[in-house]
Here is the input.
Amino acid sequence: MMRLPLFEFRAPRTLEEAARILDAERANAMPLAGGTDLLPNMKRRQQVPRMLMSLRHIEILNRVALHDSGSRLGACVTLSEIAADRRFRNGLTALAQAASLVATPQIRNMATLGGNICLDTRCNYYDQSYEWRKSINFCLKKDGTTCWVAPSSRKCVAVSSTDTGPALMALGARVRLVSRSGEREVLLSDLYNNDGIDFIKRRPDEILAEVSLDNLHGWKSTYWKLRRRGSFDFPVLSVAAAVSLSGNNTVEDARIVVGSAACRPLAAMEAAKSLLGRPLNQQAIEEAAALAARIAKPLDNTDFDMTWRKRVTAEFVTYALRELRGDDVRAERESFTRCAFE
Amino acid sequence: MPNERDPRVTRVGSLKANENDLRVIGVPRRRVDARAKVTGQTRFADDIFLPRMAFCKLLRSPHPHARIRRIDTSRAVAHPGVYLVLTGKDVPIQYGILPVSQDEQALCVDHVRHVGDPVAAVIAREELTAFEALDLIDVDYEILTTISNPEEALATSAPRIHEYGEEGNIHKLVALEFGNVEEGFAEADEIFEDTFFFQGNTHLPIEQHASVAIKDPDGKLTIWSSTQTPHYLHRALAKVLEMPAAHIRVIATPNGGGFGGKSDPFNHEIVVAKAALMLDRPVKICLTREEVFYCHRGRHPILMKFKTGVKKDGAITGMHLQTLIDGGAYGSYGVASTFYAGALQTTTYHVPRYRYQGCRTFTNKPPCGPKRGHGTPQPRFGQEVQLDKIAERLKIDPANLRLHIVESPNAVTANFFRLGTVNLSECIRRVVEVSGWKDKFRKLPEGRGVGLACSAYLTGAGLPIYWNKMPHSGVQLKFDRCGGVSIFCGATEIGQGSDDVLAGIVAQVLGIDPFDIRLFTGDTDLGPVDLGSYSSRVTLMAGNAALQAAERGKAIIAEGVAEKLEVPKERLSFADKRVFDSVAPEKGVSFEEAVCIAEARFGTIGTVGSYTPPKSPALYKGGGVGPSPTYSYSAAVVEVEVNPVTGWVTVPRIWIAHDIGCALNPTLARGQVEGSVYMGLGEALMEEQEFRRLPKKLSHALVHKFPSILEYKSPTSLDMPEVITELIEEPDPQGPFGAKEVGQGPLLPIMPAVANAVYDAVGVRIDEIPITPEKIMKALAEKKAGREPRFGPSHFPRINWPEALRVPPPWEGGDGNAVNDVPRRTRRVSKKEKVLTS
Here is the structure.
């Protein structure tokens, strides 16, 4: 079987202690939350940190605070908790849907919100064992010099594969990053970077401690995920959408995010803008779907054909917006996800 | 035990024995190994831990095709914790499952043929140490041309992947003609020509291959291994290790799934055996999932061309099948697979004249071999989809068309396979009825559809893999004074339920409870030979051997009890753990007493039974592949929903009827049918053993696209449809209690039925497996553009076929021999082993 490399293990009880450890170790240490992604990656030698620092014993990271004024979610809240909590509805539905569609029940029991936000980018040439990567002489993202997806590319094109990332971006989430030198809060959309290697602007000494959301009263949101099977699979395309509708059903505000079509979740700004002040009628939805599909540029490094994934983008935006205006699209959702969402 | 019949079983005939006597057979039962399996107590090979045990890892080739110039192991040998480093020179003798394809080496000596081919082994105190030491072995390779597919193999005569075979990189060419096919086409009202492609896929057993070897205190060798064929492994070990077979014991641990993927002797098994002998320490290996993908031996990718002539009523006048088969880097079962791909076309529908041409090429990929259905699902897909096209053109309902042309029971086919019971018609009628076919076919709204397909499969290969005249299966029974019975048999439990079949048959005959029986199976020291768990042979062959041994034991016990009770032995019944006078049931003894009476009278009681299949009338060269004591039949209706924009497919329901002869344990039989449906659906919709050829200008690399259980897509429980299983029973005289196989046949109709259903739903033909949404969307675009609404291969390459062996079919006076070859009967059989397939 595949064995983990040897590593040192630390389990601080406070955020301060954790920040001190990271400050001292810098890139030698990696924070460990659920470990559902990091540990398999370590078995494949994609990451070989000298030290793992567990975050699970830091009590403050496990807190959920949902208030009318807004919500704060600790980074170590598990995806199962989010999926099962019926308070995550209406404005927050997209987050609960995204969490409930990650991997498998067993993985969701361990996997955390912070971990999913920081999920390493994925690629069929990278998510392979050491021996496999050796047989292609490695790749740009790890130990090599060529990006085999696009050999002329000087940039790594590994795919953002987080489910909660696009959902949270559609909800306008911010994240709090804590380090020994202080803390900062940034919009989640500003945390991501469209580069398969430097996909996240978290410094190695920083801990992503908390996600915060504004009051989403009057908003509705949804998340659509494309994957081959009803379980296990990472998204190979996703659409998160949130709208705030006025009394006469015109769009007051909207956010559409396309996930797993680049190295970061992509905000479909023009698509969202095109909806403002209009009712969610067929024409408005079609225009927004076409605009959103335009920014999706999937490449041949995940499951499914890339042109087909692009085609599905428009379809998913259409389903999402129809769902948000109140159409019954449960049959379509169940057909694609094999899961009903209550 | 309640004697309740299963409601979804249709009885065509009646059983030989009085039905009231069947307390075990035919009753849905908990299988004898269920408790251990559901409580996690079954001991698989990787669960074995022995004192002083060392761990083995294999260094595998990172190149698809290369010569090994030099291997330097000195740094690895010096690494702390490393006990031993082996290279090809330590185990150079070639082996392979078929006597004609002895082309493998446990560790490659001078030539690597695919990424993952093993070149060295490290045995160390810890598995992690062994892994780390792999990087310390320096191998100097000379890169050779990468041959990535059959077309490249046909075009590349040098370098050769192997120095044997037909020529260049063609491993095997087959050409057989049964009757004059051109005359058949001349008689036809319509001729159909279609090309199909069936992508390769792998078995994906949940248990990764594992082996533990130990040098016994007396110097002999014992190996525990997750193998389906302990007997063939036994022979390969004796050959490669140059040890007397009597000094080697192979214990097949229960397999966590096999599906054909554990039927070859494997390099890792030989390596740990060699290492254990050298180190005098237990040595273990458990493959990673990636390594399991490199063992492979899975479904061959096959490009096919079917040319079929039919009369207006659908009657087939002639059929010509050509196949181009991607064999991968080694022979494995490939010669047999090449024949199988052309074998069973004649067993479902009457084909009066038939020509088959098959070509297997070597490529630089893990070797293909036998996967559930071995070589037959690919052409079955083509044949059944083409029949759907024929039915549409002839304006006949596809179910009715098939009913019209079903082959007769006990027929001898054009290629000289003798059929047994054939209840294909009943299978078709049942699925048509329960699926509501007549209200659905061509009547459902756009985007929804149903498809139908049929199949046949062997109930055990009629011939062994190596030439011999001995039984294919043997069973020994030991009766003890406490009323216990022990079964000793080489048959291997791979999850299919062979232990339960043996226990059920013996319990039925002796009138005892299957749970009172002890089983010692899959152990070459303890039990007589059974050839292995492949070709759906165990229920029929080991079952018949068990039946014979049990009947013999029953006769001895009856003799003793009859004397004691002063009752004629013919009047004795064995049931409810008693032996009693069937006229006066109160007069009797317990089974335990009965054994004691018989032992007192005759001494220690033990019996044996064995089974040898009947001789096949297929005497021509190649006629060794396809004969079977009898064949199972299946018919399936699949319902699909297809999104007309994206091509996304879902399968809400599948109805399947299987002609099983007799369901010995209907619970198990249903499990096999549902498991086959599951596997078939995976092949139909998503599974692909796919490879990446990196840009030729930049790299010679040819790698498995995703050797992981995450990215190799196989359906999850959430993707499984509702399955309605109908069992059709007409006891076949060849099977124990009339039983035929159920482990493989029900897989075969699923893939073509899905393709036919997709056509019914959205009017596009997907002539390629798997049927993915991308392909459907492309075909929908073709349809929209007014072109042929189809996705699939457009041509079949030109191949220089040899002159066909011409075998006149039975109705043209043929005797089973080819008219242009030396007849087998007079051919000299060399004293050395001979493969039957060449």
Observations:
- The first strand of chain B starts at residue 9 and ends at 11.
- Chain B has a mean pLDDT of 95.
- Chain B touches chain A at residues 46, 60, 62-63, 115, 127-128, 131, 208, 286, 288, 290, 641, 643, 645-648, 650, 686, 692, 694-695, 698-699, 701, 703-708, 710-711, 713, 715-719, 772-774, 777 (CB under 8 Å).
